[in-house]
Amino acid sequence: MKQLFLISMAFLVSASLLLAGCATSGYKVIEKSGKKEKWVKTSDLCYEKKETLFCRGEVSNVYDLALGKRQAEADAKKRLVEKVRSELVVEYREFTKGANVFPGDVGRFVEDALQSTSEVTMGGLTPGKSYWQSEVIGEGSKPYYHIYALVQVSRKDYEGAKSRIVEVLMEKAKQETNKEAERLLDEWKKQRGE
Questions:
Q1: CA 45 to CA 40: how far, in whole Å?
Q2: Cβ distance 34 to 131 under 8 Å?
Q3: Under a CB-based contact definition with an 8 Å cutoff, are residues 152 and 54 in contact?
Q4: Nearest CA-CA partner of 55 in 127, 157, 144
Q5: b/e string for 121-151 if b means 16 or more Cβ within 10 A?
Q6: Rg for the chain (alpha carbons), in Å?
Q7: CB of 88 closer than 8 Å to CB of 166
Q8: In 24-100, which residue ranges form alpha helices assigned H by DSSP?
Q9: Buried (b) or exposed (e) across 22-34, using 16+ Cβ within 10 A?
Q10: Cβ neighbours of residue 27 closer than 8 Å, sequence gap 6 or more
Q11: Strand order from edge to edge, sheet including 144-154
């Protein structure tokens, strides 16, 4: 009886170790496009280098490499557009704090319009590098891709996109005959050097 108990315990310990090993193994890289460069490893999704802005996009669990590359590039572009939008909101808030204006509802009109701007035309936006790796989760599972893409735009084109958004806001204020918003936006444009 004691021997049966020891055999049972040994079996349970072995089985639990085997299951624990399988559960923590995670994914395994089976193929990659090359060496993982610094831009892939960095925690900065967007950064600037020599008057050029870069944004990284990422997508995982994709089975079609070409489709995944396009999705990762679209993700990078989306991050760049979000960066433009958020910088303009911060810039506008700083302007209203420093200006001798009390924007009230007008300020909310401009800020809401900035945050809801759906189209940001970014001239000079070019795809940069890409990196991918093919991974599997476990033995016998279908391999999938984890893909990174980098897009870049010159500082000049980036600032041009910001200026175009301010122009769109001016047009919106004119269409809604919001004279106070027009005046506030005009002052902001002057401060921006436009």
A1: 9
A2: yes
A3: yes
A4: 127
A5: ebeebebbbbbbbbbeeeeeeeebbbbbbbb
A6: 26
A7: yes
A8: 38-41, 65-98
A9: eeeeeeeeeeebe
A10: 135, 136, 137
A11: 28-32, 126-136, 144-154, 52-62, 46-49
| 8: amino acid identity, one letter | S
The closest of 106, 113, 100, 97 to 178, measured between CA atoms, is 106
Q: What six digits make up the tokens of 173? A: 């204020």
Give CA–CA dist 90/81, Å, rounded.
14
Distances in Å between the Cα of 37 and the Cα atoms of 19, 32, 76, 129 are 35, 12, 17, 10
Q: Which residue has the tokens 């004279």?
A: 179
Question: Quick one: pLDDT at residue 99?
Answer: 59
Q: What angle do CA 137, 143, 145 make, to 5 degrees?
A: 100
pLDDT for 7-51, tens place per residue?
A: 554 444 454 444 444 444 588 999 999 999 999 999 999 999 999
